[in-house]
Amino acid sequence: AEYMGNLQLRDLQGHIVEFSRDQHGSRFIQQKLERATVAEKQLVFNEIVSCAYVLMTDVFGNYVIQKFLEFGTDEQKVALASNVSGNVLSLALQMYGCRVIQKALEAIPHKYQKLKISMVRELDGFVLKCVKDQNGNHVVQKCIECVEPMDLQFLVDSFKGNVYSLSTHPYGCRVIQRILEHCLPEQTMCILAELHDQTEQLVQDQYGNYVIQHVMEHGRLEEKTRINNLMRGRVLQMSQHKFASNVIEKCIVFSSRAERAELIDEILNQGEAPNSALCMMMRDQFANYVVQKMIDVSEPVQRKILMHKIRPHINILRKYTYGKHIINKLEKFFMRNSADLVPIGPMGGTTFSSPMKPFDYNTTTGGGGVYGGFERPHDYANCP
Question: What's this model's pTM, rounded to 2 decimal places?
């Protein structure tokens, strides 16, 4: 790369394409384009426009095209995007071409919306193929983000009857979430209907649970209520499930105050210690995170009842790896909130007015929710 130290773009005239396909040459051109004059941009453009497709699919050349889509003039952006015409599908499925398509959808000015639409329409009939492809799914997501929803009806139509299979697919689950985020209510209605029909299966799926979490976090109140109604009566069971427990956490955090209280009450009133639902959850590798969320977000009166039920089991919790997570959460909670805590009263008169003594156990603490605790480890292999 040193031999390029004093070069300027004009020095590459006649060799722009060759340099664009070289690792160091590509980086040099990208850096120069960021501060290039109009004349220098035109010089580069004149050479790459006729070879645009080849560069779009090249390991180094694609970055030069992307940079031009970012820093070129509107006319140059449109000319490059027009070069894509007829090749959108093949580019969308290609490792480097898919990045260029995404950048084009981002960079084309709004006044050329028809060009975007014509690009996206080339995927009609191949939507599901793209969604399930490791490269194509990113293009479909970018289409949903960058094109007006009313121009994407063909996309939504292609998902009808396929929502469950897509939601349980490592790439499809991402696309379904983008649809829910960006499309119109009348478009998402049919998607949500299929999701609600399969919620019980989806919450227990390694990918489907992310879709239901998304509805719980961003959906309308009535959609959240439908999910809560399905979870009610099986909070313990779902909290102990590796994937469904994530959904229960979202239910605890994003439900209405009344529905949250009902979910927590279900756990507080189920069974007697030491075999109560709460005790089993505190010792469980997945459900303990749900209990931590309950401590974080419950209303003061309900939280005091929760604390009252947990505290007698501190010594037992010390013996369990996941029980220590609860101890850590309680310790930090009491240290931060001791001034606000008062006796429970009729529940037994136990007072929580002083901080708990530090516990002696070897483990690593981390941030967690409002009061600190142990964060659920991310399953990066499955997280979309």
Answer: 0.83
